[in-house]
Design a protein that fits this description.
By secondary structure, this protein is an alpha/beta fold. Helix content is about 35%, strand content about 10%. It is built from 5 helices and 5 strands. The strands form 2 sheets. The protein has a 3-stranded mixed beta sheet with strand order 2-1-3, with helices on one face. A two-stranded parallel ribbon has the order 4-5. A hairpin with a 5-residue loop joins strand 1 and strand 2. The termini are far apart. About 10% of the residues have low confidence.
């Protein structure tokens, strides 16, 4: 009988804790939704590190406090490079960036100012960079629709950056014929 009371008490305490957490989450969500100019700041250390320790060099410029070349670790994300550059300036358009995207060695990360036209992810020669392109950019390629674009991104997220265009053969649904059609349109 006493054991049954203790069990009910534990269930009630657990339920009360869940209700408090849900209420707190609702307050935070309501605060963010009622102020359209607000954003949630995420400290780079809030995410468990996925890094292997290898050094990556990232060129950060645009609407950040201190543009420049920064060292980050393999597995770090866009938010980590922005933090290294001193954070966003007040005129930064954070909505044009995927802050959770993993970084690739040698990339240039441009933080646009509010009102700027979004730049298409790619290279200077017009080819689409498989390591930085979003689904919309990949979808512009021949024989790549939304589903194939999602598989390319999933492959990149799972296996790390593409080291060669030939790595596309590891993506389900891409064979030699499709690869040959894409070879001159993409880069890594």
């Amino acid at each position: 009988m006493a054991e049954a009371r203790r069990a009910r008490l534990r269930v009630r305490l657990g339920a009360a804790a869940v209700l408090v957490l849900v209420a707190l989450g609702g307050v935070v969500l309501a605060a963010v939704l009622t102020d359209p100019g607000s954003s949630i700041e995420v400290a780079p250390t809030a995410v468990a590190p996925v890094s292997s320790g290898a050094v990556l060099y990232i060129h950060v410029l645009g609407a950040v406090e201190r543009a420049g070349l920064y060292e980050v670790r393999e597995g770090d994300r866009v938010i980590d490079a922005i933090a290294a550059a001193g954070g966003f300036r007040d005129d930064a358009d954070q909505g044009q960036l995927n802050l959770a995207r993993r970084l690739v060695d040698g990339e240039q990360l441009v933080v646009p100012v509010q009102g700027a036209t979004p730049a298409a992810p790619g290279s200077a020669d017009g080819r689409i960079n498989l390591n930085t392109a979003d689904a919309a950019s990949l979808d512009t390629l021949p024989r790549v629709g939304p589903a194939m674009a999602a598989r390319i991104i999933a492959y990149r997220d799972t296996n790390g950056p593409f080291t060669s265009v030939d790595d596309l053969l590891g993506v389900t649904g891409i064979g030699e014929k499709t690869l040959e059609g894409l070879r001159d349109l993409v880069t890594v």
